[in-house]
Design a protein that fits this description.
heterodimer; A: 147 residues; mainly alpha; two-stranded antiparallel ribbon; 5 helices; 2 strands; B: 503 residues; two-stranded antiparallel sheet; 1% strand; globular
Chain lengths: 147, 503
């Protein structure tokens, strides 16, 4: 355990507290029959105990030596790109959004050569189009280009 | 006799041209998945599950099971050729497999792994066929308390066997259980934690969660690491082991197969643990333990036989009790549920076509894998030449399209992305994903069983102590979670005393 674990444990404790708080709006039990709040409350209580024990161990431990922040900017860029592609998919079409996303990730994030990046993106989208769109008839959102 | 009749039924299903094709496809895809770094069988099955939606359930399950045991074969190739296990169950194979490759005997290592996997995998299927029906007969007598105890045991064992902190694994299991409470209450139909979002009324679907945690998170983790873009080049020749290789490996194959099946049956243990134990046992029984780690061929045969037999073993609790013991079988359970089939004691009587068709396909699949892997190893090795960005693009493309196709909405894609980010954070802070997925899948069973049991007992917890099977299973769960802690304290307590005595 490290000090970082104490912070993560604290965040988990907050999540389980929120779950317990949300469960208080539900019925705990009718007579002897447990109600909808029964399981969430006990799960929250168990989770809270475990989270607090991680916090305690983390506070007692030494600080972590390596903050491991390398590559996070690249990851943030990739996550934003995926989020943006999903958001614009209904307007521009699923396959168009995905082609743009894959091109961006392979070219800008993973630094592939332009030719390889275009080939990879086009091949992947073509496979997805054939398998899901043509063979499985999945009704993807289509954009002005027709896919 | 009845078993042979049922096996005949299974073979009549598994040997149709359509199902033979799906078994072959599953074995082939599984082998490739096992080879590809950063994508294991759980991720592979989760990613390809949407592709099977149009198929008959038995064909889909035959293909998905093929991916599972095929990946065990594939993982060997990277372990031997580049000292990097394709998936966790092949970690032990690197120790002697790579040494053999360095000595120019990669082909022999891969050959004995394929033959050992075939023999142990086939014996595992025979054992599955013999063990499952009586266990299912016994499980018919199980009530809510037994199912609650089994779910608890499965979750605790998987967490207890985790290679990270047990507390971190347990908290992930509880998080999965908590996540399973989202949606309509399973008994009273009341909405819980839906925050007015219509799509959450049916609960959090397991597929986007599994795809996010196992597939997208893996890509994110590799993006955040310094990347190696150059493809790997590996040399391979001479795939047939010598007579001497066979003689020294046959005991290892049988022992590994037996260990693999038994460990596979235990909830939470699985193929990885089985391969570790098999390697350890083999080293212990060997007349030349000093050869292990320096290119002992039985050091390849034992773990490879064990991990294949474990896949058959892990089907026992899944098919007869409806309790998955690992991340991969949790995803398989999710697949069964998506096809409208509930694995459990009634599966054998209600859907013998599914049970026996699957068992028979595993025989056929093992033969296919042997035929594929002996001559096909050099071809599979060429998969290693794929640059990682191409693999990553494929994973992202299939993940997004697959999760969309689940219910034809983008909400599931957002859920997959969210769990992709969470999965990345979990990896970074050493929180395992498998207990969370298992908690999400087992949550409804655990909650319904617990509430039914307490309703029957009028709120008294004594019902869990007075039913012998329940009490035994819960005691076992307690031993799994507390045993290592108490043993550690006992050893620490003894060590100073021993030192004092010696001085």
């Amino acid at each position: 355990m490290t000090r970082t674990d104490a912070i993560v444990g604290g965040a988990l404790a907050v999540v389980f507290l929120a779950l317990a708080w949300g469960a208080t709006a539900l019925t705990y039990a009718d007579e002897f029959a447990p109600g909808p709040a029964f399981a969430p409350l006990w799960f929250a209580a168990t989770g809270l105990v475990l989270a607090l024990s991680i916090v305690v161990s983390g506070v007692r431990a030494l600080p972590a030596g390596d903050s491991q922040t390398q590559g996070l900017a690249r990851l943030g860029l990739a996550v934003l790109a995926v989020g943006l592609a999903v958001a614009v998919a209904p307007a521009v079409g699923f396959h168009t959004a995905m082609a743009a996303l894959l091109l961006f990730i392979t070219l800008a994030v993973m630094r592939m050569s332009p030719v390889s990046a275009v080939a990879t993106s086009v091949t992947t989208v073509a496979i997805v189009y054939v398998v899901f769109d043509r063979l499985l008839d999945v009704p993807f959102p289509h954009g002005p280009l027709g896919f | 006799m009845e078993i042979l009749q049922q096996l005949g039924l299974g073979l009549s299903i598994a040997l149709t041209p359509e199902n033979l094709g799906y078994a072959f496809l599953g074995a082939l895809i599984g082998t490739v998945i096992g080879i590809l770094p950063g994508i294991g069988p759980a991720a592979g099955i989760a990613l390809l599950l949407p592709v099977t939606f149009g198929m008959p359930p038995v064909s889909a399950l035959i293909m998905l099971a093929g991916i599972y045991y095929g990946s065990m074969y594939g993982g060997t190739l990277t372990s031997v050729l580049i000292n990097t296990p394709g998936e966790s169950a092949s970690v032990m194979t690197t120790l002697d497999g790579y040494q053999l490759a360095m000595q120019g005997r990669a082909g022999a290592a891969l050959g004995i792994a394929a033959i050992g996997s075939f023999i142990a995998g086939s014996l595992g299927v025979v054992a599955l066929m013999l063990v499952a029906p009586p266990l299912a007969d016994l499980a018919v007598l199980f009530g809510p308390t037994e199912y609650f105890a089994l779910a608890v045991l499965g979750l605790i064992t998987l967490s207890g066997m985790s290679d990270t902190s047990v507390r971190k694994a347990l908290i992930m299991a509880v998080a999965g259980l908590a996540l399973s409470t989202v949606g309509l209450d399973p008994i009273r139909g009341e909405r819980r934690f839906t925050f007015g979002i219509l799509e959450l009324s049916d609960g959090v679907e397991f597929l986007p969660v599994a795809v996010g945690l196992f597939g997208i998170a893996e890509v994110f983790t590799n993006i955040a690491k310094p990347m190696r873009l150059d493809p790997i080049r590996a040399q391979l020749s001479g795939l047939i082991p010598t007579w001497h290789d066979w003689v020294v490996s046959r005991g290892a194959i049988l022992r590994g197969g037996l260990i693999g099946f038994v460990v596979g049956v235990l909830p939470g243990a699985g193929a990885t643990i089985a391969s570790f134990i098999a390697y350890g046992v083999e080293k212990r029984v060997s007349r030349h333990p000093e050869r292990f780690g320096h290119g002992a061929i039985e050091g390849v045969a034992a773990p490879e036989s064990a991990n294949n037999a474990a896949t058959a073993g892990s089907m026992v609790p899944l098919l007869t009790l409806g309790i998955p013991g690992s991340a991969t079988t949790a995803v398989l359970l999710g697949a069964f549920i998506l096809y409208g089939i509930r694995p459990g004691p009634l599966l054998l009587s209600d859907r013998p076509d599914i049970f026996w068709g699957l068992v028979a396909s595993m025989y056929v699949g093992n033969i296919m894998l042997l035929v594929l892997n002996l001559p096909g190893a050099p071809l599979f090795a060429s998969v290693l030449r794929l640059p990682y960005p191409a693999i990553a693009a494929g994973i992202i493309g299939i993940s997004l399209a697959g999760t969309y196709s689940l219910q034809n909405n983008l909400f599931d894609v957002w859920v997959a992305l969210l769990f992709g980010v969470l999965g990345f954070a979990m990896k970074r802070f050493d929180y395992p994903a498998a207990p969370l997925v298992l908690g999400l899948v087992l949550g409804p069973l655990l909650e319904i069983s617990l509430r039914q049991a307490l309703t029957i007992s009028h709120g008294s917890l004594a019902i869990f102590a007075t039913r012998p099977t329940t009490a035994a299973l819960l005691t076992l769960a307690l031993v799994v979670v507390l045993g290592p802690v108490l043993y550690g304290r006992f050893r620490r307590h003894r060590s100073p005393a021993k030192k004092e005595h010696t001085s």
